[in-house]
Amino acid sequence: MRARVTVTLKEGVLDPQGKAIEGALKGLGFGGVNGARQGKIIDLELAESDPERARAEVSAMCEALLANTVIESYSIELV
Amino acid sequence: MRARVTVTLKEGVLDPQGKAIEGALKGLGFGGVNGARQGKIIDLELAESDPERARAEVSAMCEALLANTVIESYSIELV
Amino acid sequence: MKSAVIVFPGSNRDRDVATALKVATGIDPVFVWHADTDLPDVDLVVLPGGFSYGDYLRSGAIAARAAIMPAVAAHHARGGYVLGICNGFQILTESGLLPGALMRNAGLRFVCRKVKLSIERTDTAFTRTYRKGQVISCPVAHHDGNYFADPETLDRIEGNGQVVFRYAEGTNPNGSVNDIAGIADETGRILGMMPHPENLIADHQGGRDGLGLFAGLADLQPA
Amino acid sequence: MTIPNTIPITPELIAEHGLTPDEYDRFVGLIGREPSLTELGIVSAMWNEHCSYKSSKKWLKTLPTSGPTVIQGPGENAGVVDIGDGKAVVFKMESHNHPSYIEPYQGATTGVGGILRDVFTMGARPIAALNALRFGSPDHPRTRHLVSGVVAGVGGYGNSFGVPTVGGEVEFDPSYDGNCLVNAMAVGIADTDKIFYSKAEGVGMPIVYLGSKTGRDGVGGATMASAAFDDTIEEKRPTVQVGDPFSEKLLLEACLELMATGAVIAIQDMGAAGLTCSAVEMGAKGNLGVRLDLDHVPVREERMTAYEMMLSESQERMLMVLRPDMRAEAEAVFVKWGLDFAVVGETTDDLRFSVWHQGEEVANLPIKELGDEAPEYDRPWGEAVAPAALEPSAVPAVDDLGAAVLSLVGSPNQASRRWVWEQYDHLILGGTVTGPGGDSAVVRLEDGRKALALTVDVTPRYCAADPFEGGKQAVAEAWRNLSAVGAEPLAVTDNLNFGNPERPEIMGQFVGCIKGIGAACTALSFPVVSGNVSLYNATGDEAILPTPTIGGVGLIDDIDRRAGIAFGADGERVLLVGG
Ligand SMILES: Nc1ncnc2c1ncn2[C@@H]1O[C@H](COP(=O)(O)OP(=O)(O)O)[C@@H](O)[C@H]1O
């Protein structure tokens, strides 16, 4: 089973990359951009096939490593 | 209107980040991980409110800047 | 003073800091492999600069979960000293031994240049050879050195006087909040800093401003 | 299920592999039958310009390559020069021009990675890197993208790997609009009695694959690097390789640790056309055959064909001939560093290059002939067409000299390069005495008073105006850069970047520059110990300016007796030396 983890910066945390993207888009003439924030996704290939157990396992991975919960939040999607 | 752009590495392109994440998860005892690939998301705040025009605009942004289409593919989701 | 330098896969200033320790203290540090779980009997543990695990996922994130890290925390709890430089600082924040996080530089580019550092505290083992308010020269070389902490945390570390180094004279190279270049934990026995004092310890490098940090550690007494 | 290796070899297929009908006939003559697909791939890799030097070999042979301190001249992964005290400097320069134009960040990273590997394959620890970059006009629509990508890539790789990037050049000229140049140089230090070579020795010795896994990266890439750009550029895109400096750093440490155990008989990095070129070269140099079993090659993609494995350009890989009694020790080193280690074949006494996959022999070729019998051309060359001389009256006089100086200083080719080199870690390892910005970089050798002086230089305008004089001038300037910091010049590496050699006037530029380089190097006893040739830097009829980049290395015996470019104090005398 596959899982997609989406990690985004928490509200209020500075996002230099997002800001730079916004600036660059404006520089390229895309005037209608009022904000940009960057995050990441991690696609996992899991041996587990039970959705519930898979979700619990991926949650544990997020807490242990995939997200830095000081500055980031995460969400999990199973596919 | 908001748009989420998801950028992932094309099939077959080496993903050193994914490889490192997979190794680290295994090292932390998550044995059931058979693969990991990393991608990114960019959340955009748009002035445009028409979905069709918004999608076209974001497509143009992806081609121009947000994705490196030599090695990455992208998808767009409007929210 | 006995010290250990932890070597992670991708550490690359491990030899630089070992040289600085040798020059300042006369004793070679021992190198300890990240996969070990025990530390030798030392007074100081150094987490060196580099790109541990390629800095993939987040700088320092994977190294912070290395097998040796519980021993580093235990060493500190026993009264030992810990120094993290650059990637080492990132590992310290990722492991929760220091507060805050190091984000991508505001300019988004890797920056290698000399900056000015003001010494905010001299009551730590790391800074006792300097004068309070002294401004020293020091190189930086990093991509993710933009120090960030939420407002409460920032208030707390400023209130406790945990900021040890600040970028001075408008030389902040990365957008760090309050020009923070290095912080200590509440005990003052853990220091994390982005700049590289280990690369400014000899005349051929253009000065010795960085040597004072290592000299201050020379007569650390076992706790 | 096996993957088919026998398909009819059509003229189209031959052309797609960059072989001319004559070259194909020559190959069929050598093997006495129609080749399999894998064999066609192998010969296309071995015989393309990049690997065979078929257009340039004749002229490269005219360069002076020896001297009292030269330990190894051209022909190995890098040149080696004695610097006394049992130490040697190991260095080479290499281009990654075409890949960088297609994907500037990854093109530059893999270029830097390749040249670093060349140096540490010889047993040297890299201590410095330099780079010479050339881009089109600053207002060309692609230039900004290329500059920022290439610079970030050069830095991204070197910084993470942990080598100081201490010098280089950046130049803009419209002739590079469609072909940027990325020339990377690496310099390392080794013990003179612990230099490692690529020549295999002994029959029945295990051949070991080291490093990262093999994917489909760059399949066809070596062929791409040798073909002038055309409209099919878009289709060639998926062959881009991705660099992984982290794995390379591990590979460096693992290789040096392994070499110290005495287990290595021969070692060769997998560069362009990875497994093919490295295996053939190791066998042919040692007068040995090689048998490979591809089933043991660590792969990261499914259902890879023999053809793909033989042509893959996946990065951060090495091939080694191992002392069989030390296998366990060797493997333990690689396991410790988390890298792949697999025995993929052995040396044989039959002088054949035999490749097996899924129980089938997919290639069986005469190993020496693949290299020795590669086509070699004496391409026709004419006098290069020199640009018309400027009439002094055609250059308007300036009224305001101050403003003229300002605009000169602020012009793209004169402006400060700080923006570039601040993105490079030029201080790591602690040896940098003079970083970017001077005549030559100066890097102190470990714990001593000695230092190396390093520079890269060429003035393509001069080479276009007069190839012979331009070639000479590039060498002379490198020489002056080294002596200006107080170094004794030692030796040279070069990177010869030119347009399409099938055009006589371009070949004329090439020949003229080589003759000039040869004349200057001979006069100065400044031997060429390594280098690289990059041809077909042209888009349609538009060729780049002739760009023979010279990398110079010199030795300073006492770092306290060096010179810099800064004036020291008020009231000093300024002397002009030379004529
Ligand atoms: N311009 C040159 N001058 C001197 N030697 C050269 C030059 N170009 C290539 N060589 C030498 O030829 C050999 C093969 O070159 P190399 O670029 O390593 O081939 P490849 O990249 O295909 O393995 C090397 O030893 C190199 O030093």
Automatic annotation (TrEMBL), chains A, B:
It holds the Pfam family PurS. Its main location: cytoplasm. Coiled coil: none annotated. Its EC number is 6.3.5.3. It comes from the Bacteria. It catalyses: N(2)-formyl-N(1)-(5-phospho-beta-D-ribosyl)glycinamide + L-glutamine + ATP + H2O = 2-formamido-N(1)-(5-O-phospho-beta-D-ribosyl)acetamidine + L-glutamate + ADP + phosphate + H(+). It is found in: Cytoplasm. InterPro entries: PurS, PurS-like_sf. It is an enzyme of class 6 (ligase). GO terms for molecular function: ATP binding; phosphoribosylformylglycinamidine synthase activity. The keyword Ribonucleoprotein does not apply. One of its GO terms (biological process) is 'de novo' IMP biosynthetic process. Pathway: Purine metabolism; IMP biosynthesis via de novo pathway; 5-amino-1-(5-phospho-D-ribosyl)imidazole from N(2)-formyl-N(1)-(5-phospho-D-ribosyl)glycinamide: step 1/2. Keywords: ATP-binding, Cytoplasm, Ligase, Nucleotide-binding, Purine biosynthesis. Transmembrane segments: none annotated. GO terms for cellular component: cytoplasm. Part of the FGAM synthase complex composed of 1 PurL, 1 PurQ and 2 PurS subunits. Belongs to the PurS family. NCBIfam families: phosphoribosylformylglycinamidine synthase subunit PurS, PRK05974.1. Part of the phosphoribosylformylglycinamidine synthase complex involved in the purines biosynthetic pathway. Catalyzes the ATP-dependent conversion of formylglycinamide ribonucleotide (FGAR) and glutamine to yield formylglycinamidine ribonucleotide (FGAM) and glutamate. The FGAM synthase complex is composed of three subunits. PurQ produces an ammonia molecule by converting glutamine to glutamate. PurL transfers the ammonia molecule to FGAR to form FGAM in an ATP-dependent manner. This is Phosphoribosylformylglycinamidine synthase subunit PurS. It comes from Amorphus orientalis. The lineage of its organism: Bacteria, Pseudomonadati, Pseudomonadota, Alphaproteobacteria, Hyphomicrobiales.
Automatic annotation (TrEMBL), chain C:
It catalyses: N(2)-formyl-N(1)-(5-phospho-beta-D-ribosyl)glycinamide + L-glutamine + ATP + H2O = 2-formamido-N(1)-(5-O-phospho-beta-D-ribosyl)acetamidine + L-glutamate + ADP + phosphate + H(+); L-glutamine + H2O = L-glutamate + NH4(+). Keywords: ATP-binding, Cytoplasm, Glutamine amidotransferase, Hydrolase, Ligase, Nucleotide-binding, Purine biosynthesis. One of its GO terms (cellular component) is cytoplasm. GO terms for biological process: 'de novo' IMP biosynthetic process. The active site is at C86, H196, E198. Its EC number is 6.3.5.3, 3.5.1.2. Part of the phosphoribosylformylglycinamidine synthase complex involved in the purines biosynthetic pathway. Catalyzes the ATP-dependent conversion of formylglycinamide ribonucleotide (FGAR) and glutamine to yield formylglycinamidine ribonucleotide (FGAM) and glutamate. The FGAM synthase complex is composed of three subunits. PurQ produces an ammonia molecule by converting glutamine to glutamate. PurL transfers the ammonia molecule to FGAR to form FGAM in an ATP-dependent manner. This is Phosphoribosylformylglycinamidine synthase subunit PurQ. It comes from Amorphus orientalis. The lineage of its organism: Bacteria, Pseudomonadati, Pseudomonadota, Alphaproteobacteria, Hyphomicrobiales.
